[in-house]
């Protein structure tokens, strides 16, 4: 596949990642603008507040799929170019979808916090850490009833798990960080924590909203 086609697929992944499924579903089924409810976020947690848990779960699935499906497609398309090339471009596609969710062109670059889309990225790159992250989110949320605590805890577990998985697969830290996987994990985690700055401030003040 030519570099131009690869770049075009990355751009298409950004455009797909920029689709605000939470906003669309809430408007379609309730007529409400999810940005005017609760935290104002377009992600699954706020959709659950605005339109119910079923639509919140559907938003989670769709926001994850808009990263994982393009990644799997890219990996399949580049299978004959070798695993290293396929991995690099697959990660580029996943990060493009992730950034599309955070900075969607369709909403004036004002998007969500990226947790579900990051889960879609990790589900392909590091499935076991992604599963552990879901368990961590569930446990932290059940204990606190604060979605941000679950999201931040799950993200940290997923990032650490992806790095450890790569170290084990490649035989050490130096070989692991020669792979783009740990760097992608750190990149995604940094952006998620930055997008949760206000939540972290409220948590420190004991003022974060519960659901």
TrEMBL record:
Signal peptide: none annotated. The chain crosses the membrane at residues 7-29, 55-77, 89-109, 115-141, 148-168, 174-194. It is found in: Cell membrane. It catalyses: an acyl phosphate + sn-glycerol 3-phosphate = a 1-acyl-sn-glycero-3-phosphate + phosphate. GO terms for biological process: phospholipid biosynthetic process. Pfam families: G3P_acyltransf (PF02660). The keyword Lipid metabolism applies. One of its GO terms (molecular function) is acyl-phosphate glycerol-3-phosphate acyltransferase activity. GO terms for cellular component: plasma membrane. Keywords: Acyltransferase, Cell membrane, Lipid biosynthesis, Lipid metabolism, Membrane, Phospholipid biosynthesis, Phospholipid metabolism, Transferase, Transmembrane, Transmembrane helix. Its EC number is 2.3.1.275. InterPro entries: G3P_acylTferase_PlsY. The keyword Membrane applies. It is a multi-pass membrane protein. It is an enzyme of class 2 (transferase). Its main location: membrane. Belongs to the PlsY family. Probably interacts with PlsX. Catalyzes the transfer of an acyl group from acyl-phosphate (acyl-PO(4)) to glycerol-3-phosphate (G3P) to form lysophosphatidic acid (LPA). This enzyme utilizes acyl-phosphate as fatty acyl donor, but not acyl-CoA or acyl-ACP. This is Glycerol-3-phosphate acyltransferase. The gene is plsY.
